[in-house]
């Protein structure tokens, strides 16, 4: 399935819920978002139907996200059903990790291929400041549980924000002893949680990946470590816009994702589905297509039409737009 700009679109990110057990300051307002009513949220069977239609027109990879996908009731069964959908080759998940100690084994057995765990700091106080309610030890336990359950790769995604002054080398060093793939993601000033309406962070808080790469190498050398080199056989599988490096001899890798300093729009391969059943052609654009109505009243042909309509509306690039009507927790990151 190709879009109007010749890009092959074979990846669908599905937000399972707008609810979350954290309240990260760049993602959600402190008192949470105005939660969707029960009947506004796609039912599990509706998501399954949508995935079947999406697979029939060329979607091969699904990522489950949110809000926090693991707080959605029925998520393990959904993973099982999506993995057995003809045409779907892999199902992955982005999570804050808190519920992984309880759920990693059953998710693995259900066929989940990969997990990305979000973690922005290794400092317990800063973790609380960023997530407002979370405990660092819970997310660290989630990482341990993902490795113990045999997920491979396990990626740790850290949003980098200039004013937070995170210890980036400490993060990069997580890749030394264990097969962890640390990925630094430039902060994106989207949603009402960012910018003037939210935490007050804006474009000046974006640390371009190139600058970050130099910071990490400089600090590594000052600690007697070698510099990062292009990743070899340790490079993790899984489509993604990251560029990967590694410390010589390390078990894992260090990746950089640069949605702002180095647009990867020309390689964009995805559509997004919000928890309330809107297909979003681009993270940075508020244009959405209602597939919930098509699922509830139209049937397979109507669903396919909505997907094609959204596909046809994918912009060539995001043109550095700042702010969107929906927060990340509602779009799914
Ligand atoms: N709750 C899950 C989690 O945190 O992994 C999944 C949903 S969360 C919205 C998905 C990803 O979006 C997380 O890695 C999060 O750090 C990232 N994210 C949220 N707001 C962001 C922002 N303003 N800029 C960059 N990444 C952001
Ligand atoms: Fe929740 Fe993930 Fe958003 Fe944090 S980034 S508030 S964990 S949805």
What number is the mean pLDDT?
91
Helicity level: 25-40%
* Outline type: globular
The domain tally reads 1
Helices, strands, pairings?
Blueprint: E1 11-15, H1 44-56, E2 61-65, H2 75-83, E3 90-95, H3 100-110, E4 114-118, H4 124-131, H5 136-148, E5 154-160, H6 168-172, H7 174-177, E6 180-186, H8 209-222, E7 229-230, E8 243-246, E9 253-257, E10 270-273, E11 278-280, E12 289-290, H9 292-298, H10 300-312, H11 328-331
Please explain how this structure is put together.
- There is one protein chain.
- By secondary structure, the protein is α/β, with parallel strands linked by helices.
- It has a single domain, classed as TIM Barrel (Alpha-Beta Barrel), CATH 3.20.20.
- Helix content is 30%, strand content 17%.
- The chain has 11 helices and 12 strands.
- Strands 7-8-9-6-5-4-3-2-1-10-11-12 form a 12-stranded mixed sheet.
- Strand 1, helix 1 and strand 2 form a beta-alpha-beta unit.
- The longest helix has 14 residues.
- It is globular and about 65 Å long.
- It starts with 10 loop residues before the first strand and ends with a helix.
- The model has no long low-confidence stretch (mean pLDDT 91).
- It binds S-adenosylmethionine and iron/sulfur cluster (SF4).
- The site of S-adenosylmethionine has 21 residues, from strand 3, strand 5 and helix 11.
Task: List the defining traits of the structure above.
single chain, 333 residues, alpha/beta, TIM Barrel, twelve-stranded mixed β-sheet, binds S-adenosylmethionine, binds iron/sulfur cluster
């Amino acid at each position: 399935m190709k879009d109007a700009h010749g890009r092959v679109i074979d990846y669908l990110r599905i937000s399972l819920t707008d609810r979350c057990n954290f309240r990260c300051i760049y993602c959600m307002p402190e008192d949470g978002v105005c939660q969707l009513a029960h009947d506004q949220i796609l039912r599990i069977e509706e998501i399954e139907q949508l995935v079947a239609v999406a697979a029939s027109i060329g979607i091969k990879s699904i990522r489950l996200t949110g809000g926090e996908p693991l707080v959605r009731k029925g998520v393990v069964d959904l993973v099982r059903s999506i993995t057995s959908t003809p045409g779907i080759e892999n199902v992955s998940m982005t999570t804050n990790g808190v519920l992984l100690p309880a759920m990693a084994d059953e998710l693995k057995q259900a066929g989940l291929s990969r997990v990305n765990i979000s973690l922005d700091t290794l400092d317990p106080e800063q973790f609380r400041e960023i997530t407002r309610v979370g405990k660092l030890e819970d997310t660290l336990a989630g990482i341990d549980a993902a490795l113990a359950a045999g997920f491979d790769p396990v990626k740790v995604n850290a949003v980098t924000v200039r004013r937070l002054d995170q210890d980036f080398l400490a993060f990069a060093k997580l890749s030394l002893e264990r097969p962890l793939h640390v990925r630094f993601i430039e902060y994106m000033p989207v949603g009402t949680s960012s910018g003037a309406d939210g935490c007050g962070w804006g474009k000046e808080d974006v640390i371009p990946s190139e600058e970050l790469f130099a910071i990490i190498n400089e600090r590594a050398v000052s600690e007697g470590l070698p510099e990062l080199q292009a990743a070899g056989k340790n490079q993790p599988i899984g489509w993604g816009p990251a560029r990967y490096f590694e410390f010589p001899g390390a078990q894992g890798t260090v990746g950089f994702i640069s949605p702002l300093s180095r647009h990867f729009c020309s390689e964009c391969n995805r559509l997004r589905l919000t928890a309330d059943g809107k297909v979003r052609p681009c993270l940075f654009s508020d244009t959405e297509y209602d597939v919930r109505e098509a699922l509830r009243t139209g049937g397979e042909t109507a669903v396919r039409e909505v997907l094609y309509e959204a596909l046809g509306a994918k912009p060539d690039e995001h043109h550095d737009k700042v702010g969107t009507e929906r927060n990340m927790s509602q779009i799914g990151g």
